[in-house]
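4.2 Preliminary Data

To establish feasibility before requesting continued support, the project team ran the inverse folding procedure on a target of 322 residues. The structure was first converted into the token representation described in Section 3, and no sequence information of any kind was made available to the design step. The complete token record follows.
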């Protein structure tokens, strides 16, 4: 039956959800060779116009991000926005946990990727212009994702551990990270290509024992990828079957010649390197590796130490703003 009576409006039901907040933007001012300085004004303007209450904390070194995140949580702030590259996200997330336990179970992390690679956000379609990213940061939508734990030997010979959200590596990829860190940042993505070429001659093919949930194998190893996310190295789709909330790593052991990973560069960007007769692939919640000689270990683009290493998951331990 039709009626001329106007429809009733329920303000509680029909109003758009208020943004999360208050928030703290943890900003690495050197990310992307300083590109963040051009992005930050547009980001803060858009967030303020959307009604988000926030303040801004600048890192003095990338290690500061963990301390800034921890301080924010202890001050009662539950929405942290990492503005920078994958390294910034890495340190912010590490600052949100204490002994593998979240400092605040209701904390949410958002990301505005401004680094040279910013591969983590590619997993969620958030590698977009700052205005688009700001619109995502203003909604209430979150996604629980897994967090990796890397146990390794640090450069002082001590057993250490670090959390990671995207990808950890032992071998060739970690060697590339080390060498890229020595090159000037203004080279952008070219830093990694130059470092990748130089790493071929420097890297030994190690005798390795790789263990996952259901088996252990002895392998000649050039590169071990333990992936929570799919992308790394400035857009390479290294682990196309990785899903950051399925409770499993995508583990890839490259067992070919020292040049194997470099020669697969084109296929890696397209995610077309699998299946491959010299890449052993597993889906597993754990991975351990011992090698002779030792290999470098990195996670989220941060050089950590050396093998032996072990990788485990904290399942759906982090609320990511999407």
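Position-by-position output of the design step:
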């Amino acid at each position: 039956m039709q009626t001329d009576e106007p429809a009733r409006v329920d303000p509680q039901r029909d109003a758009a959800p208020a943004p999360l907040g208050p928030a703290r933007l943890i900003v690495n001012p050197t990310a992307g060779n300083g590109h963040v300085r051009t992005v930050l004004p547009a980001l803060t303007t858009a967030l303020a116009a959307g009604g988000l209450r926030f303040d801004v904390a600048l890192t003095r070194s990338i290690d500061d991000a963990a301390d800034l995140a921890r301080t924010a949580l202890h001050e009662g702030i539950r929405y942290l926005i990492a503005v920078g590259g994958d390294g910034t996200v890495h340190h912010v997330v590490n600052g949100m946990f204490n002994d593998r336990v979240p400092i605040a179970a209701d904390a949410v992390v958002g990301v505005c990727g401004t680094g040279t690679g910013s591969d983590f956000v590619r997993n969620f379609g958030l590698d977009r212009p700052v205005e688009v990213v700001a619109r995502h940061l203003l909604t209430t939508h979150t996604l629980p994702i897994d967090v990796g734990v890397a146990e390794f030997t640090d450069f002082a010979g001590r057993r250490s551990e670090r959390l990671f959200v995207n990808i950890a590596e032992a071998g060739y990829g970690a060697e590339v990270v080390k060498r890229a860190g020595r090159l000037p940042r203004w080279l952008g993505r070219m830093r990694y290509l130059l470092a990748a070429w130089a790493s071929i001659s420097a890297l030994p093919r190690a005798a390795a024992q790789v263990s996952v949930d259901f088996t252990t194998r002895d392998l000649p190893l050039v590169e071990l990828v333990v992936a929570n996310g799919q992308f790394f190295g400035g857009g390479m789709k290294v682990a196309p079957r990785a899903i950051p909330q399925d409770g499993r790593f995508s583990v890839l052991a490259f067992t070919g010649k020292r040049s194997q990973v470099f020669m697969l560069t084109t296929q890696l960007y397209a995610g077309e390197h699998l299946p491959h007769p010299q890449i052993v692939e597993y889906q597993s919640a754990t991975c351990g590796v011992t090698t002779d000689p030792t290999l470098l270990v990195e996670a989220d683009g941060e050089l950590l130490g050396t093998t032996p290493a072990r990788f485990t998951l904290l399942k759906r331990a982090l609320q990511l703003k999407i």
